[in-house]
Task: structure prediction
Amino acid sequence: MNDKEIDQALNQATPAGAVDRALLDRIAANLRADLSPVRPLPSVWVLASALILSSAAVAFGDAAYHGLFGIARMSIVRIGVIFTALAILSLLAARVSVGEMIPGSRRLVQPGTLLAAGSLMLVVIFDALFNDPSMERFLPAGVACLVAGLVCALPVGLASWLILRRGFAVNRVQAGLAVGTVAGLAGVIMLELHCPNFHTMHVVVWHTAVIPAAGLAGAAVAQAFRTKRSAAELMQ
Result:
């Protein structure tokens, strides 16, 4: 059956004059009154670049404010390997975050997979590059770095929300997890620039922990907003 045959079948199924033309005109007028032009979203890579630039600005600004003691002690090899890995992960996390906010966009990887694989990748890199087995002040120094990383991640998460707020998350929790991962990576970048503690377990455990902590926090915030919105809709 072609298009013409379909139109004919529909016309035959609808009795002539069954719908008041004035009624249809009023409905169309009401619909047109509510319609307004929508400013299109920037391209995926423009949004991803904005996320990366805001993350880098916060991370470098925070580290510079507290002192660039970590990178000052690093060798060229450590700097090259660590910051290349962090740059790649940040780029991928930003792209995934944008994808979660644009329905129908191509998914490179699931946010949970990215968080787990990125954290494991940094654990392997840190373990290979740092060989100081000392556990001196493991807990107090570690908690201080974890808190500092999360404090840095917070404004990155807020900036990411402002950049992506015009998008629509089909799965809010996945979107929150992705944005939290971007923020967590910014926290790790800040710590690598600032922290002069090169004890292997300190870097492996506490610096890496910023990523899953920030990612889960982002997912939790998104879930809280989704629950609140659902409750409000039920009350209407």
